């Protein structure tokens, strides 16, 4: 981000560097602005619409602290615009009985004009070099219905299709079963974890070409498939990617329970795994071993468990200087685990050397607690974080600093990155208030969805 004097358009994402007058020397270059820096009187931030291939925002009538993206029938990996996607979210209403699970379809998510223009230029360059242009480029151009006079910030074409399912209590976390996306688990502030079959709602949305008038106002009554009451409320919740239907839930009294699918469409909830000395904040199943999962806690530790041994964890390390809020297991490189803490740090762990207690990467960039971390499903070295500093950061661990390249680009970008800016920081998305959670879409390459107190953002950075 770059700061400058004068007015600017309001928006999301990195700022566009102002053009410098010809007589401007190096000492007058604009400063790179980072969230948390103060702005002088008359200074504003300028949004760069060219930084996004797509960007859309939407909201429910209540804030949502947690959501999940659902695997669908539309294929993977896909990149042709416009996109359609499905998701489920939970609300935090002003009274317990006003809460609901929001089952959503977002359709007609189109490109920004800048992205469409960029693709046209690339296709023209290909033709000039004697190429025919790839099918994927042609498909994406054909799928973009943007008018050439459309506003350059965003193609306002995305449509929200919504079904509401009644839910008593504020919803702390929502997770969909990867093998059966219609099966959804919710963690409520009533200390209950509930499992829901949302197949009927999803089927309606799949067949809905345009949002049905009045459908979003009706709240449907659905009986939960299974309910388990913990000794206190909690946030930690994860489905096994290896064994369909296996679930783990953790609460604020340090207890972890594993749910096993049982005959008759029920679940058997086992006795508590004990070992943490504080609230269990997050859980992650191993992407390759069906009996192994990891947990993160307010007691500053990350623990690795085996379901065959409930009396103690297999491994444990003090991971952060304060609460460990979130963890993410790399699905492609299965010995890599990432964590984010109240200390604002993002750390990456090699589980082959986990017992040594030293992270293989440590980034102290965020200026507030890290609230979410997730690896990109298509690039094993890429991950993203959200923080209470209202930043969503995309990281690429494969990147290294190249001072010569930075100096060469400086006249074009008109600003040099500060020395304390990590070279692995690939993209910063801003503009949301009280960011809580983000997910990469599992089937749409590079698409990110985030939730905050003021609603959802759906976007694809141009460089991801």
How would you characterize the overall build of this protein?
Helix 1 runs antiparallel to helix 2 (135-143). This protein is mainly beta and 464 residues long. The protein is 9% helix and 37% strand. The protein has 4 helices and 31 strands. Strands 4-5-6-7-11 form a 5-stranded mixed β-sheet, with helices on one face. A 4-stranded antiparallel β-sheet has the order 3-31-30-29. The radius of gyration is 23 Å and the shape is globular. A hairpin with a 6-residue loop joins strand 21 (324-329) and strand 22.
How many whole angstroms does the radius of gyration measure?
A: 23 Å
Kindly, what is the distance between the CA atoms of the first and last residues, rounded to a whole number of angstroms?
A: 18 Å
Number of strands: 31
Shape: globular
CATH homology superfamily: YVTN repeat-like/Quinoprotein amine dehydrogenase
Could you write a compact summary of the structure shown?
The protein has 464 residues and is mainly β. It is built from four helices and 31 strands.
Please tag this protein with its features.
disordered N terminus, mainly beta, four-stranded antiparallel beta sheet, 464 residues, 31 strands, Methylamine Dehydrogenase, Chain H, globular
